[in-house]
Amino acid sequence: MKKILFFVLLIHYSQICFARPFENGNAQTGKLLVEKNCVSCHASSFGGDGSGIYLRDDRIVKTSSGLLTQVRNCNTMIGLKWFEDDELNVARYLNDNYYKFEK
Protein backbone atom coordinates (compact mmCIF):
# COMPACT_ATOMS: atom_id res chain seq x y z
CA MET A 1 0.00 0.00 0.00
CA LYS A 2 2.85 2.39 0.82
CA LYS A 3 4.40 1.75 -2.59
CA ILE A 4 1.14 2.60 -4.37
CA LEU A 5 0.77 5.80 -2.38
CA PHE A 6 4.38 6.71 -3.14
CA PHE A 7 3.87 6.25 -6.89
CA VAL A 8 0.61 8.19 -6.88
CA LEU A 9 2.33 11.09 -5.12
CA LEU A 10 5.31 10.86 -7.46
CA ILE A 11 3.07 11.06 -10.52
CA HIS A 12 1.13 13.96 -9.04
CA TYR A 13 4.27 15.98 -8.27
CA SER A 14 5.84 15.22 -11.64
CA GLN A 15 2.73 16.61 -13.33
CA ILE A 16 3.04 19.79 -11.28
CA CYS A 17 6.72 20.17 -12.17
CA PHE A 18 6.13 19.75 -15.88
CA ALA A 19 2.79 21.53 -16.21
CA ARG A 20 2.61 24.43 -18.62
CA PRO A 21 2.44 27.79 -16.91
CA PHE A 22 -1.04 29.21 -16.45
CA GLU A 23 -2.56 25.79 -17.18
CA ASN A 24 -5.76 26.86 -15.42
CA GLY A 25 -6.05 30.07 -17.43
CA ASN A 26 -8.39 30.40 -20.40
CA ALA A 27 -6.58 31.87 -23.42
CA GLN A 28 -9.79 32.83 -25.25
CA THR A 29 -11.05 34.83 -22.29
CA GLY A 30 -7.59 36.34 -21.91
CA LYS A 31 -7.59 37.40 -25.56
CA LEU A 32 -10.88 39.25 -25.09
CA LEU A 33 -9.51 41.04 -22.03
CA VAL A 34 -6.32 42.04 -23.87
CA GLU A 35 -8.27 43.32 -26.88
CA LYS A 36 -10.61 45.33 -24.68
CA ASN A 37 -8.10 46.75 -22.19
CA CYS A 38 -4.52 46.53 -23.46
CA VAL A 39 -4.24 46.91 -27.22
CA SER A 40 -4.98 50.64 -27.48
CA CYS A 41 -2.32 51.58 -24.93
CA HIS A 42 0.27 49.19 -26.37
CA ALA A 43 -0.48 50.32 -29.92
CA SER A 44 -0.01 53.97 -28.98
CA SER A 45 3.37 53.14 -27.44
CA PHE A 46 4.66 50.55 -29.92
CA GLY A 47 2.62 51.12 -33.06
CA GLY A 48 0.70 48.63 -35.15
CA ASP A 49 -1.46 46.29 -33.15
CA GLY A 50 0.63 46.79 -30.01
CA SER A 51 2.13 43.30 -30.06
CA GLY A 52 5.58 44.84 -30.42
CA ILE A 53 5.63 45.25 -26.65
CA TYR A 54 5.72 41.47 -26.28
CA LEU A 55 8.17 40.78 -29.09
CA ARG A 56 10.84 43.47 -28.57
CA ASP A 57 14.42 42.41 -27.87
CA ASP A 58 14.66 44.44 -24.67
CA ARG A 59 11.38 43.25 -23.18
CA ILE A 60 11.01 43.34 -19.43
CA VAL A 61 9.33 39.94 -19.11
CA LYS A 62 11.83 37.06 -19.11
CA THR A 63 10.01 34.32 -17.14
CA SER A 64 6.50 33.03 -16.62
CA SER A 65 6.42 34.44 -13.09
CA GLY A 66 7.62 37.76 -14.50
CA LEU A 67 4.78 37.68 -17.02
CA LEU A 68 2.17 37.23 -14.32
CA THR A 69 3.80 39.98 -12.27
CA GLN A 70 3.66 42.36 -15.23
CA VAL A 71 0.00 41.54 -15.91
CA ARG A 72 -0.73 42.26 -12.25
CA ASN A 73 1.22 45.52 -12.40
CA CYS A 74 -0.79 46.69 -15.41
CA ASN A 75 -4.02 45.65 -13.73
CA THR A 76 -3.14 47.74 -10.69
CA MET A 77 -1.69 50.77 -12.52
CA ILE A 78 -4.61 51.09 -14.90
CA GLY A 79 -7.20 50.26 -12.24
CA LEU A 80 -8.87 47.48 -14.19
CA LYS A 81 -9.99 45.66 -11.03
CA TRP A 82 -9.47 42.25 -12.62
CA PHE A 83 -9.80 39.19 -10.44
CA GLU A 84 -6.92 36.73 -10.13
CA ASP A 85 -8.64 34.47 -12.69
CA ASP A 86 -8.67 37.34 -15.19
CA GLU A 87 -4.94 37.88 -14.67
CA LEU A 88 -4.28 34.17 -15.23
CA ASN A 89 -6.41 34.22 -18.38
CA VAL A 90 -4.44 37.15 -19.78
CA ALA A 91 -1.12 35.57 -18.83
CA ARG A 92 -2.19 32.31 -20.51
CA TYR A 93 -3.15 34.13 -23.72
CA LEU A 94 0.06 36.15 -23.81
CA ASN A 95 2.21 33.12 -23.06
CA ASP A 96 0.50 30.92 -25.64
CA ASN A 97 0.78 33.56 -28.37
CA TYR A 98 3.97 35.50 -27.65
CA TYR A 99 6.22 34.38 -24.81
CA LYS A 100 6.10 30.56 -25.03
CA PHE A 101 7.45 29.92 -21.52
CA GLU A 102 7.38 26.22 -20.72
CA LYS A 103 7.29 26.40 -16.93
Per-chain topology:
Blueprint: H1 2-18, H2 27-37, H3 39-46, H4 52-55, H5 64-78, H6 84-99
Helix pairs in contact: 2-6, 5-6
- Mean pLDDT, as a whole number? 86
Radius of gyration: 17 Å
Integer count of domains: 1
Distance between the termini: 32 Å
Question: How would you concisely characterize the structure shown here?
Answer:
It contains six helices and no strands. It has helices at residues 2-18, 27-37, 39-46, 52-55, 64-78, 84-99.
Describe this structure in words.
The chain is mainly alpha-helical and 103 residues long. It has one domain: Cytochrome Bc1 Complex, Chain D, domain 2 (Orthogonal Bundle), CATH 1.10.760. Helix content is 69%, strand content 0%. The chain contains 6 helices and no strands. Helix 5 packs across helix 6. It is globular and about 60 Å long. It starts with a helix and ends with a helix.
What distinguishing features does this structure have?
single chain, 103 residues, mainly alpha, Cytochrome Bc1 Complex, Chain D, domain 2, 6 helices
